[in-house]
Amino acid sequence: MNEIFETIKKIAFDIDDAIKNHDLGYSDGENSSGESQLKLDVESDLIIERAFREVSSVKNIVSEEKEGVLELHSDGEFTVCYDPLDGSSLVDVNLSVGSIFGIYKGELKAQNLVASAYVVYGPRIELVIATRDSKPTLYRSIGGVFKKISEVSLNEKGKLNASGGTQQNWLPYHKTFIDSLFASGYRLRYSGGMVPDLHQILLKGGGLFSYPATSDKPNGKLRQLFEVIPFALVYVMAGGEAIDDKGRGLMDLVPSFPHDTSPCFFGSKYEIEALKKAYGV
Ligand code: AFP
Questions:
Q1: Rounded distance between C-alpha atoms, residue 176 and residue 150, angstroms
Q2: How far, in Å, CA of 138 to CA of 152, rounded?
Q3: What is the three-class DSSP state of 170?
Q4: What CA–CA distance (Å, rounded) separates 102 from 61?
Q5: pTM listed for this prediction
Q6: How far, in Å, is the centroid of ligand 1 from the Cα of 179?
C-alpha cells in the first residue's frame, strides 16, 4: 500500500504542474456522465493511469473520466478508483481543485475500501491519507517534498455549513434544515469544489457538507466510488460521520455501477445528529 501512497505523491506534483502550466481549454470529448472534459481532466487522468501502470500491486483502475474498469496488472491486489481533477470547472477562475483516490481490495463496495487519499491543489499542495486504523494524516508540500504535518480530528460540533446543488431544486425539509443552521450561527463556506470544501471543514474543526437529493438529481450528484466513499472514510476516521439521506452510513454503500451517485452528508457528530432529526431518519 505504501507504494500506492508514494505514487499518489508523485502524481500530485505532476498534476499540479499541469494545472499551473498547461492548456486550460476544453477537449473534444465528454466523460461517461456526459460532462464536457477539459484538456486538464484528460491529462490528469493520463498522468494517473501512467503512474499506476508502474505499480504492480494495482490490479485495476476506475476513473471518473473513463467508462469502465481498466485492468493494469492481472496479479495485482488493489483497485484504485479516482477522480483525477475534481472541481475542474473552477480552474479557469483560479480556485482550489483536487484529486480523490479510493483504494479497494476485492469487490467495489465501501466495506472493501482499505484506504483513501485526496490532494488539494491550492496556494500549496496538501495531501490527506486515511486508513482504517488511525486518524487521517495531513501532509503539505514544502520545498518539493510532502512533509507530515499532523493527524486530523473533527470537533464534536463545528461552525461551517456547505450545501451543494441549486437551492431552487432543494427539497423543502432540506432548505428548512440549512436555514436553521444559518439561523443558529453557522457560516456559509462553499466554493463548488468538493475537495477544498470538505478539506476546509475538516481542518477548521467541523461543520457540515451536504450534497442532497434534489428535484433534478434525486440521487445527488457526487459519485460513490470516486468521491463519496473515499471522503466518508476520511470523515469517519477523523471522528465525524458520513451518511446518506436515509440516515445510512456511507461506509455501507454498495454501488451497482462505477458511476453511481448518492446523496451525501459529511460532518461532525452534532450536525449529523441534527440532520437526522430534520430528515426524520
Ligand atoms: P465539476 O467537476 O463539474 O466542477 O463538479 C464539481 C463537483 O463534482 C464537486 O466538486 C462539488 O462539490 C460539486 O460538483 C458542486 O456542485 P454544485 O455546483 O451543483 O453545487
A1: 37
A2: 7
A3: strand
A4: 10
A5: 0.96
A6: 21
